[in-house]
Amino acid sequence: MPKERGYFVHVTSRTVGQAFLFGSEEKWVFIRKMRDWAEFSGLGVVTHCLMDNHFHMLLWVPRIENVGHREILRRLAEVWPAEKLGAWEKVYREVSVSKRKRMDGEMVARMGNLPEFMRVLKQSFAAWYNRTHKRRGVLWDARYRSVVVEENPLALLSVAAYVDLNPVRAGLVEDPGAYAWSGFGAASGGGQWAQRGLGGLVELARGVEGASEPKWEKTRSFYRVWLLATGSENGERERKRKGVEPAVAVAEFARWGQTPFGSALRRRRRSFTRGVAFGSEAFLRDLLVSYRGCFGPKRRRAARPIRGGWMGLHTLRQVE
Q1: Is the CB of residue 47 less than 8 Å from the CB of residue 197?
Q2: CB–CB of 197/45 below 8 Å?
Q3: What is the pTM of this model?
């Protein structure tokens, strides 16, 4: 993973056998657990989408440093019942100073930790699902997939749109804002946590990162135009993919202007789920150099261009 202050990553995972197991209740429970464990871990959920048999998340994974005991307790309260937290704190107060440091250190080690976040999220949801449905056995199909995304506005907006357009591509809704279990759907419905995630992304794209917390009303139009443009249907294809009606997209263009590329994100792309990283050629080259031992000795070129007018974006394929 990138070694600086943190990194963006797109993660996805499917149910075992790709079975359609999730209804509205299951989706709400998963999203609540996702939010709670992200709060504990210190991860930022930029956007997400939970479908009937899989999920997508675009996450910011920060470096975690100097988390004090009070903050540890606050974060644990998001994910532990009061009884468990009280028992842990009782043990904490009864042990020596060195053991207290060890207990705090074990908790901090779980923060800013993508594998740990994914493990506990998937395991806790699977336990709830099996208990609720009187079911036994594994729920998820193997390990999650992850693709590191460059901190580049075009790359991040592309992946975010890919995530939020999942229900449109599947033909479940025509308007991406109408799907309650996605980041854009939640933000459109008034979810402040979802508005903060996408609002921060839009502010980054507009070059005003670090400003005061963005107002959703000021950023919604920008992101909606982006989604409608990238999600518009292509009438020239013999096999038409599901997407936003062209007339709707054209109306939005007339009001706000066009996006950098028109309809590339209508189609499912392996680059977003089967690669190692996504971004500019320079970003991928630096990753290859930093993690040279993870690749085969014959590997010389990191970046492979993505076909279809992607304005300089490339993918780094799976480790050999």
Answers
A1: yes
A2: yes
A3: 0.81
The architecture (CATH level 2) of 6-64+117-270 comes to 2-Layer Sandwich (3.30)
What's the burial of 35, exposed, middle or buried (CB within 10 Å: 0-12/13-18/19+)?
middle
Q: Which residues of the chain have pLDDT under 50?
A: 234-241, 246-247, 249-250, 252-254, 256-264, 266-268, 309, 320
Domain with CATH 3.30.70.1290 in the chain: 6-64+117-270
Nearest-5° angle of CA 15, CA 19, CA 21?
A: 80
- Which residues lie across from 145 on neighbouring strands? 12
Phi (first) and psi of residue 10, to 5 degrees: -100, 125
- Residue found by looking up tokens 């013999």 in the block: 238
Q: What is the pLDDT of residue 246?
A: 44
Q: What is the per-residue pLDDT for 33? A: 97
Q: Is the Cβ–Cβ distance between 314 and 304 less than 8 Å?
A: yes
